[in-house]
Amino acid sequence: KPEQILMLAFAKKAAEEMQDRQDKCLSTMLPQATPTIKTFHALGLEIISTVEGRRPTLTAFAEDNALFTRFIDNVVAELMQDATYQEKVMKFCDGSPSLNSTSDVSQFLADFLVLFKQSSQSLAGLKKRIPKKDKSRFTLLIALFEPVFAAYQLHLSGRNEIDFADMIEKAIEYIENGRYHSPYQHILIDEFQDISQPRARLIKALLAQQEDAVLFAVGDDWQAIYRFSGSDLSVTQRFSDMFGAASVTALDTTFRFNNKIGEVASAFVLQNPAQIKKSINSVVVVAEPAVSLI
To answer: Which helix (H) or strand (E) covers residue 197, if one does?
Structure first.
């Protein structure tokens, strides 16, 4: 049934484009219902709203990075009134040539906070993962970060707000404790290489609720470029380890570039031993080199 099909995209624009194509192709064929198309965050929002009976309030920080940055700046400025914290900041800056001011430290901590929440880690878990190499510096980082994180979380809870990371985590919690039951038998994901561990856990939780549920994913580890925002390539590379037995269909023919460009690009990508080895065939075949370095 169409209502048992869920298609997921990572960006709102991509989801809107998928919806537009579906409307043009299927709306006349399936007048009663069509497959559901959402972003991961919209899915999380739907799950939370269904369980709680109301739409959760998304913090303004989630869609206004400048506002979020100002908030962290103010938190750090207040913490800097404490001589001990100020001393730690100065010591941390001494170990990094890119941190030359309190503003630099604030931005660093703001970026770290976003990645920390996207990873779904706890402070206790983070402390256990401190590497032996540079242990003192990582310990110092956590000492600077912990009160900033506490102030941020207090701000959200005091206003009964959530951010994008909370959207995914709370949705996972409601699925796993049985307060939400998935209607989806077939889940399709585009650009799977951009998935993060929390999003993968969300999908795994949905699949576990439906007997014989099927996951169909389209992705290319060579196109993974969003590690800086939380994506984890290992989910793609070890797909079967997380989701069970799978069959793979290789889409190895490209219309985008000729074979000579493909040879150069492939040789470059495969310098990273973590990439999955594959051969790309080009529809356009040329004999002369097509890449020039000037």
So the answer is: helix 197-209
Q: What is the pLDDT of residue 144?
A: 96
The span from the CA of 276 to the CA of 278, in Å, is 6
Maximum distance among all Cα pairs of the chain, rounded to whole angstroms? 69
Express each pLDDT in 241-288 by its tens digit.
999 989 988 888 999 899 999 999 999 999 988 888 888 899 999 988
Would the pTM of this model clear 0.90, i.e. be above it?
A: no
Q: What are phi and psi of 254, to 5 degrees?
A: -115, 145
**Site of tokens 């809107």:** 16
Nearest CA-CA partner of 18 in 188, 185, 220, 182? 188
Torsion of CA 72, 73, 77, 79, to 10 degrees: 20
Instruction: Give the orientation angle of helix 197-209 with respect to helix 40-52, to 10 degrees.
Output: 50
Dihedral-angle region of residue 244 (phi above 0 means left; psi in -120 to 50 means alpha; beta otherwise): left
Q: Cβ contacts of residue 278 below 8 Å, gap of 6+?
A: 222, 250, 252
Compute the distance between CA of residue 112 and CA of residue 123 in angstroms, rounded to an integer. Answer: 12
Q: What is the pLDDT of residues 209-250, one digit of tens each?
A: 988 899 999 999 888 888 877 888 889 989 999 999 899 888
pLDDT at residue 33 greater than cutoff 80: no
DSSP 59: P
